[in-house]
What does this fold into?
Amino acid sequence: MTANNTLLRISNVKKNFSEVEALSGVSFEINSGEIVGLVGSNGAGKTTLLRLMSGVYTPTSGSVTLGDNTPVHEMRDNLGVVPESTGLYSRLTAWENIRYHSRLYGVDDKIAWKRTVKFAQSLEMEENLARYTKGFSRGMRQKTALLRALAHGPKVLLLDEPTAGLDITSARTVRALVAQIKQEGGTVVYSTHQLFEAQQVCDRIIIIHNGVVRADGSPQQLIKENNCASLEEAYVALTQEKARVRFEDSKSESGITKLWHKLFRPKTPKLIENAEVFEDE
Amino acid sequence: MNKSGHRIKTIAKKEVVEFVRDWRTIVAIIIIPILMFPVLFIVFPILLESEAAELDSKNVQIEIQFNEYPDELIPLFNTTTTLITEVNTTFSTSLSDPLNDLERVRGMEIDAVLRLNYSEDVWYYSIIHLSTSESSSEAKGRILNALLIFENNITAERIDEGGLDVDNTLDPLRWDGDVTKADVATEGEQAGLILSLFIPLVLAIWTFSSAIQPSIDMTAGERERGTLEALLGLPCTRNELLMGKWLGVATITGVGVLLQIVGLLFAIGYLASSDFIGIPSLSLEAVILIILSIMLFAVMVVALELALAMRSHSVKEAGSILGPAIILIIFPALFTQVINLDGIESFWFSIPVINILLALRELLLDRVIFEHVMIWMITSILYASLAAYYAARQFKREDIVTTLS
It folds into this structure.
């Protein structure tokens, strides 16, 4: 892989939320045509990293650049994003949702429609494009969000847990679409905490744990470098210390709200005392 | 149209389309505003009239207790709808003391009791009634009407017996000619005065209240439903997003306010035909300034509501902030109604909310005072800019993508 192939460059990125350091000096590059898996437990920093890549967040320090060192928020036309929540408007049809985003990308409706129809066939969604998304299942919502992210022809597709909560068939369809994008030379960053899925879909896996990149390489490389029999064993070996738990940032709460919460915080019984009570009973 | 303008238009259009697709919105922004004033000014008076007519034809039972028969009083009652029982008695206590009639009136055995005690050329009276009963109140009203005529007759009789002219004695001061001709204000100005008492109030309250729901839906609602994150990853800037959403809320609110004014004008047109109120006569510059003042007010209010809603962590929180915030409009709006416009000090036109409401009042009276116009225009632009700046700051916050819910 040559440096010329580099599409997205993450250089020593730190991201803090109040006192919490969500990402601590993360660096890696995404090359053109790669399917890169971001793997980590809940709270590892995958979503924060994806939000930094999509320009929703700005790094506290370091940089996220696209192509010729252009900050990513200036080049968002080149990205297609599918957030975990899918973010569909229930009172719009699937096509209207797709068209809304493609118009904001500045893409002509006809071009967006052509691309949508092409990928809708792969996802078996043609019949549903004219339907309101209100009654859509999780799988249909995810597929619509994927179509929406692809309609403007992005260079890089950022997917945040695209198969989370999907049934087996829908998950397979999504994975098949990612494979199709790869065949067509597309680049995908694929966040997941399912190792088997990462192994199946991705050329390269980046393991993130507690805001730090622990490993970066192909599934075979990770297994070999850690002298393990499987990717799961390698993952466990690389992420041995306890995963941190992230609480919602209470800094944004006003003083009155904090005082109110303090006054009405329910009392939690002490575990040892409780145990004694149960023993007595 | 440049790229930025195209994006703002796309965002605003989508917001309006999505909002209008909810039938409850149609009721809230079209049906209610257009029907509110006609119902208030046309249907409500008709309802009151029919209620009054129903009361007039209602049969009521009255008992007249007296120590001396009031022969001139009895014929004053309409006996077809008023059933009268006469009881000759003597009174030993105060006439207002209900005594045995308490239970009879409370039990609605009888609607009212008129007590008359004639003593030394004076008729003393009291009416035992039940104020919470419609029949009893109607009976009391009929008794009072009859007593008024009865008293006037006695007064006239006694003046006549004293050798005086009744009319000249009772009405020694009289207006000469047509009262309405003496008012030099034109009919249009008089209509403007009446309208200036409630149009600013209605416009201010309706603009604020009708912007609440769309503001919350397009900010905290989007945040809660997870649609905001996808939007923030698009090439549009946060300012474009704010402007698009502002335009969406302003369009929805504007349509609501406009329809309400149409309903109001329709009601006025109906009332004008009954000479109750006329169409205000306004100069072109007054009309332009009215529109401008409403627009500045809308910019400020909508931007402020969007900012507060975006600042909130959830729809519930946004609702609990913006709902009570209407007090910020209601109090100044009510206060403005009692401010005397003649010789008003200029500083009033620099106070937020009050400045626009006073400007509307003055302009509806077709008073275009350059100094006042300059003050409210400059201060309103300043407040609208501050509100827009505050909203822009809220939209640029990084944490708007997350929600506590």
Notes: The longest strand of chain B covers residues 112-119. DSSP finds 14 helices and four strands in chain B.
